């Protein structure tokens, strides 16, 4: 692994942890059934969900990502990296941004899961 890839993975891992923290905070605010919170936190932290958020934010796979399997995972890694990088600049803003992004996904899941044969994106 190159030095750039090592730095990428370090920042991406930090972003993953910030996103997990944001998911926990979000669940504490919106989930009344505490037994469902771990399931929701795991879902919000999944590569699939983070990859969908990355697509909505129009992110691309990062050039230093050593991951070669799966576009969704590469996009999730790029999103985690962007949150990790923001955390180094402004911790409070990074957590707030992650929480806002996860809340937007949670409240608008139908917009993220558009049918593949829906060319105009209106869900019809």
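-> sequence recovered:
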């Amino acid at each position: 692994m190159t030095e750039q890839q090592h730095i990428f993975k370090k920042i991406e891992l930090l972003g993953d942890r910030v996103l997990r923290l944001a998911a926990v905070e979000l669940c504490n605010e919106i989930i009344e059934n505490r037994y469902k919170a771990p399931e929701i936190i795991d879902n919000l932290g999944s590569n699939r969900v983070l990859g969908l958020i990355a697509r909505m934010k129009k992110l691309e796979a990062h050039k230093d990502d050593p991951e070669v399997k799966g576009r969704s995972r590469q996009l999730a890694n790029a999103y985690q990296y962007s949150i990790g990088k923001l955390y180094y600049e402004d911790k409070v803003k990074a957590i707030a941004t992650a929480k806002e992004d996860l809340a937007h996904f949670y409240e608008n899941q139908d917009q993220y899961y558009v049918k593949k044969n829906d060319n105009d994106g209106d869900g019809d």
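Residues 115-119 have pLDDT under 50 and may be disordered.
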